[in-house]
Amino acid sequence: MASWEWRRSVANAAILVDVADDHDLTRTDLLRGTGIDPVVLKTPGAEISAAQELKLVRNLVTLLGDPPGLGCEAGARTRVTTHGVVGMAILSSPTLRSALDIGLRYISLMTSFARLWHVDKGDEIWLYIDDSDLPADLRCFLAERDVSALLTNWFLMHGEPPAFKRGEMVAVLQPRIKPLVEEFGIPITTAENVQLVVIDTSDVDKPMPHASAMTSMLFEEQCAELLQRRGLCEGVAGSVREVLLRQMNGRITQEDVAERLHMSLRTMRRRLSEEGTSYRRLCVETYGALAEELLATGLTVEDVAYRMGYAGAPSFSNAFKQWRGVPPGRYARTFGDRQRPAVHQ
Fold first, then answer.
1. What confidence tens digit (pLDDT) does each residue in 106-159 have?
2. Residue 92 burial (10 A CB sphere; 0-12, 13-18, 19+)
3. Is residue 45 left, alpha or beta, with left meaning phi > 0 and alpha meaning psi from -120 to 50?
């Protein structure tokens, strides 16, 4: 189950409020239970949690019955400049390929809640979209919003449809998304779980209309800082972490992870290296941090071993010593000593 406690720009929520206004919904009804201060919606640079935005979406689709096209209303209002520094980084990218790369690496700073990654296939780019962690009752609206926002901004920047050759989509989304893309001659077939979009690369190296390499680099640096401040995982490293967390016993292989991300082992290693990390480091960081959190709650070593999928305390203890250099029992005692208030004589 995904955590939705990371931060989001309030800009997306403000657009949802505008859509609600068009349907004569009151602000009180729309914001009920979200914990969002109405003043924040008009504050530039303000942030809310992902959970708050999802609650806002749920209120909107519940009050209006989630009719087809509702997500398009929100997506069509979304401009690439809505996303601040990441939007400016995209607009000033030297080529379409670099713009796609920036958009995918910093997708969490934009509209989408899904995980995206891409694999180069020579004359094609295979773009994978995993939205399986999203609440089922919001999935169609959010997919509609993402696709509509993409098509709207692509037309604004390039004046022509995107060079998508084909797509694969889970059955539940097809009634809402097929009408948006089939008018451009993009065939859609059924996917089992992860969506796929195949992009023709024949024009991806052409210059962007507002290309400026130095400007794009400047905004990209700000994107990286913003991503870190909001506590978000980026790129392939973030996708690997999520696979690791789903395989709690730590016995998944690099080959298994690469296969689940639909890329070769060599490609995964190269992409992780480009992001300044490695598979081994991610294992240490991910499993070590999770184990520390569980031990800090007061659970016994045996309980933590069980919750993380190990056969028993000895195998978990050996793994923990590899991650952190000390036995888990010693770590737990040290943490407890630090947390215990000092007694003044």
1. 887 889 998 888 788 889 988 889 888 899 999 999 999 999 999 998 888 888
2. buried
3. left
Inter-residue contact 123 to 200 (CB < 8 Å): yes
pTM (2 decimals)?
A: 0.69
Instruction: Report the DSSP pairing between strands 164-169 and 188-190.
Output: parallel
Question: Which residue carries 């022509």 as its tokens?
Answer: 160
Residue with the larger pLDDT of the pair 157 and 172: 172
d(CA 315, CA 331): 16
What six digits make up the tokens of 82?
Answer: 């809505």
Q: How far apart are CA 224 and CA 232, in angstroms?
A: 10
CA distance 117 to 126: 8
| 188-190 and 195-200 beta bridge pairing | unpaired
Whether 94 and 210 have beta carbons less than 8 Å apart is answered as no
Bridge partners of residue 167, in order along the sequence? 188, 197
The helix/strand count (H/E) of the chain reads as 16, 7
Residue 338, pLDDT > 60, answer no
